[in-house]
């Protein structure tokens, strides 16, 4: 069992036993049938993984679609677009279609469009190269000007902080909200992939990946699946389980999915299908 598996079990147990239940409260999200989607949740969850020690945040209690998660990161930070057509035609990813804004074939002025508008990725890369020990290396996707311009889902994985120490890159991912059984592990893995690309571009070694979630929740229609996951033991041998960026490339914008390898990943089966709250 990985450190991520252990953290997942502890967090889900805490949410189910101690979390607040929004039943009876007014909530925004709904299931496809129109029913309000209520949650059990806790606030202010912190996790830390030392990548130098091989503590990759990979869940083995169920299969994580790691390739699709990295594709999504490329869509946001390389392509820097909000286009659903790019996401489908280039990466064959369709799960964002439920968040299409007014038949525009976009998710609104969000995510990749925000990265492009404020030139956030280039500012980060240039800043880390020219002033590695600066304390202002931040990408913030939570831009109110963008929210006022169009409708769209407010970013969940909304901010990253980057720091360097003796040629080692540390990064913290901040999320306003995290659907723990569905997306939490995906977000961890994909942002470690982003961290790897930035480190490679700037010639840094990988350091610590930290994850702060303000609202960590389980939807009411996912509770039974979570209980089943809590009974699982996870992958037995995780000694050589790791994500690798295996390439001689050093330009952030040239990395592709094919440059990544997830080695010795044998997650528990069968996998789960979760009903999404929109």
From TrEMBL:
Cited Gene3D superfamilies: Thymidylate synthase/dCMP hydroxymethylase domain
Pfam families: Thymidylat_synt
Superkingdom in the source lineage: Bacteria
Catalytic reaction(s) noted: dUMP + (6R)-5,10-methylene-5,6,7,8-tetrahydrofolate = 7,8-dihydrofolate + dTMP
Cellular localisation: Cytoplasm
Active site: 156
Enzyme nomenclature, EC number: 2.1.1.45
Residue numbers binding (6R)-5,10-methylene-5,6,7,8-tetrahydrofolate: 179, 277
GO biological process terms, semicolon-separated: dTMP biosynthetic process; dTTP biosynthetic process; methylation
Record's GO cellular component terms: cytosol
Residues covered by the Thymidylate synthase/dCMP hydroxymethylase domain: 6-277
Pathway, per record: Pyrimidine metabolism; dTTP biosynthesis
Record's keyword terms, sorted: Cytoplasm, Methyltransferase, Nucleotide biosynthesis, Transferase
Subunit structure: Homodimer.
Family statement: Belongs to the thymidylate synthase family. Bacterial-type ThyA subfamily.
Function: Catalyzes the reductive methylation of 2'-deoxyuridine-5'-monophosphate (dUMP) to 2'-deoxythymidine-5'-monophosphate (dTMP) while utilizing 5,10-methylenetetrahydrofolate (mTHF) as the methyl donor and reductant in the reaction, yielding dihydrofolate (DHF) as a by-product. This enzymatic reaction provides an intracellular de novo source of dTMP, an essential precursor for DNA biosynthesis.
Protein name per the record: Thymidylate synthase
């Amino acid at each position: 069992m990985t450190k991520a598996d252990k953290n997942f079990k502890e967090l889900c147990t805490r949410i189910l036993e101690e979390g607040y239940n929004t039943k009876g409260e007014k909530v925004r999200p709904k299931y496809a049938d129109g029913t309000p989607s209520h949650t059990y949740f806790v606030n202010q969850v912190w996790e830390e993984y030392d990548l130098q020690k091989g503590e990759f945040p990979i869940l083995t209690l169920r299969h994580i679609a790691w390739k699709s998660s990295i594709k999504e990161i490329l869509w946001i930070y390389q392509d820097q677009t909000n286009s659903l057509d790019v996401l489908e035609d280039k990466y064959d990813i369709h799960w964002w279609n439920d968040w299409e804004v007014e038949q525009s074939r976009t998710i609104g002025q969000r995510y990749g469009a925000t990265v492009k508008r404020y030139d956030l990725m280039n500012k980060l890369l240039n800043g880390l190269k020219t002033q590695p020990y600066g304390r202002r290396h931040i990408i913030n996707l939570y831009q109110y000007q963008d929210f006022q311009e169009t409708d769209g889902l407010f970013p969940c994985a909304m901010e990253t902080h980057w720091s360097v120490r003796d040629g080692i890159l540390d990064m913290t991912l901040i999320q306003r909200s995290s659907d723990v059984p569905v997306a939490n592990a995906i977000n961890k893995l994909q942002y470690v992939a982003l961290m790897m690309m930035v480190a490679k571009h700037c010639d840094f070694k990988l350091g610590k990946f930290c994850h702060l979630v303000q609202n960590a929740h389980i939807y009411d229609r996912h509770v039974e699946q979570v209980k089943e996951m809590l009974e699982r033991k996870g992958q037995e041998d995780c000694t050589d389980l790791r994500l690798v960026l295996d390439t001689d490339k050093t330009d952030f914008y040239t990395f592709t999915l094919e440059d990544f390898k997830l080695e010795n990943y044998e997650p528990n089966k069968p996998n789960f299908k979760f009903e999404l709250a929109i």
